[in-house]
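Entry under discussion copied across for reference:
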Amino acid sequence: MTEGFEVPSIVYKYRDPSNPLHMEILTTNSIFLPSPPSFNDPFDCQFKMDFHSLAGDLDAQRRLAGKVAKLQGFSDEEVQAIVERLPPDTAFSDAGWLQALEQRQLKDLNDNLGVLCLSAEPDNLLLWAHYGDHHRGIAIGFDTWMLMEACAFELFGPVAYHDFYSEITDYDDSVNATYSQVFHKSTHWSYEKEFRGVRKIRQDALVTLPQGTIKEVHLGCNIAQEQVERIKALKASQYHDLKIIRYRTSPEGFFLLPETLM
């Protein structure tokens, strides 16, 4: 999913180098794909379902039955057989039962998603404050296309920001429903300029990156010198073509000035 928007050549992940788990991106050349329940925003990946069109509508019930069967792993032939056998007086006519079923199915789907949250901006003041250890951390820059291929994302794109949940109808297939869940957030988060990659996961949430995927490391304006030396040592030992950029505060305004160290 890269249609209808411009894909940035490099995307960034803000990290705290004093946290060993955060540094594993560089020390092991790998990236972890967390699932939405671990996110810090309780509204993230929430959704609103439109059930009013389902009760009493056999065609809509059959569409939903087919979608649920697919999510449960039935083959196309089995799905067709299930849909054809659906009687008019099925529980699919009960809007309350439908809501409980769909919530459970989408929760199962959500729990099995790996979502990588990134930003298109390496010099975002709030991201440095919130995720870059108060400007003492780093922002790791990835080649976007190499990252997308390595992680085998089924969906990749920018987050859209709204004041209300995106509504999903019975006409939405599982991909559209996933998009509505994962790529919509509150307008309060719009400062992040976020891009996300999404894929289904089981036990393979840790992805080893091909050499050359990590292109840059940006250093916060308050980073400790020992961390600077640590990044330099990693460049010398593992990332010979890595660009290291350090920020300092501007004397003229509220922005950061970059300086290429190596």
